[in-house]
From TrEMBL:
UniProt-listed Pfam families: ABC_tran
Protein family membership: Belongs to the ABC transporter superfamily.
Listed transmembrane segments: none
Species this chain originates from: Thermolongibacillus altinsuensis
Protein name: ABC-2 type transport system ATP-binding protein
InterPro entries noted in UniProt: AAA+_ATPase, ABC_transporter-like_ATP-bd, ABC_transporter-like_CS, ABC_transporter_ATP-binding, P-loop_NTPase
Keywords: ATP-binding, Nucleotide-binding, Transport
Residue span(s) of domain ABC transporter: 4-229
Keyword check for Cell cycle: no
């Protein structure tokens, strides 16, 4: 079942670009990555989905319901963590979370305490006394509190230390086991590679690619390190060399061509060592961005 279904979604701000003709869908129970640098259109997409801003054209559904007409109904089952969190400074964490829970039909005070303990969050502190990282924890508890069917996370780990990031990822995987669908927007590619099933790459408001992490990193590209016996310059003339760097007697390639053709050329050269690896998501991402 498609939990999120986006068709030709466009949002423009006067003459400024927002997002242009986005079309993709997210399946139930999936952790779906949404990647691009700051300013690529990730937050605009999310804010349009949540009906905080209206689309210029195109349409989208969440749980099969229209994002504009049925937005109140949709929000009952969505947990949202914005990239920047702003709260009433003079409220205590516990009061703020109880107030927030009042907007939903489901609220379990034990769940609130359990999440706060897991995240090492003091419920009795005032918001104004919290660090940026602890404010982020409040946002995480708030997003998970009502047992949402869809979690929308915008740059969720900024401000969290590495240990807390691991706890947060554990929480996400537990939610996924319960059947929750997760829309994970980030520019930190290692996180997306670790967590997500599929990923959409967005560039300057337009969709570049939607693919499984496995296909992105395995099928299309290889990261190749060739060590030659001497430091004299060696050259390879092949289709499919996306990127080449030479450092002394070592050459590194990002290669999408025919492996036999590469090996045939290397056979005639004084090769000392050869290492063929799957590229990281970061290398794949840069390949799409530099095109």
């Amino acid at each position: 079942m498609k939990i999120v279904d986006i068709k030709n979604l466009t949002k423009t701000y006067n003459k400024n670009r927002g997002i242009i003709n986005l079309t993709f869908s997210i399946e139930e129970g999936e952790i779906f990555g949404f990647i691009g640098p700051n300013g690529a259109g990730k937050s605009t997409t999310i804010r349009t989905l949540l009906n905080f801003i209206y689309p210029t054209s195109g349409s989208a559904t969440v749980f099969g319901k229209d994002i504009v007409k049925d937005s109140k109904e949709i929000r009952q089952n969505v947990g949202y963590l914005p990239s920047e969190i702003h709260y009433y400074d003079d409220m205590r964490v516990i009061d703020l979370l109880k107030y927030s829970a009042g907007f939903y039909k489901k609220f379990n005070p034990n769940r609130m305490k359990e999440l706060a303990e897991r995240l090492d969050l003091d419920l009795h502190k005032k918001i104004e006394d919290l660090s940026f990282g602890n404010r982020k924890k409040v946002g995480i508890v708030q997003a998970l509190l009502h047992g949402p069917k869809l979690l929308i996370l915008d740059e969720p780990t900024s401000g969290l230390d590495p240990l807390m990031q691991n706890t947060f990822f554990e929480l996400l995987l537990e939610e996924r086991k319960k059947g929750t669908t997760i829309f994970f927007s980030s520019h930190i590619l290692s996180e997306v590679q670790k967590l997500c099933d599929r990923v959409a790459i967005i560039k300057e408001g337009e969709l570049v690619k939607v693919e499984t992490i496995e296909n992105l990193t395995k099928k299309n590209l290889k990261y190749i390190t060739i060590t030659f016996e001497q430091t004299e310059p060696m050259d390879l003339k092949l289709d499919g060399i996306v990127k080449k760097e030479v450092n002394g007697n070592e050459m590194t390639l990002l290669y999408s061509g025919d492996m036999k053709a590469l090996l045939n050329q290397l056979n005639a050269l004084p090769v000392k060592d050869l290492l063929i690896q799957e590229p990281t998501l970061e290398e794949v991402f840069m390949h799409y961005y530099e095109k």
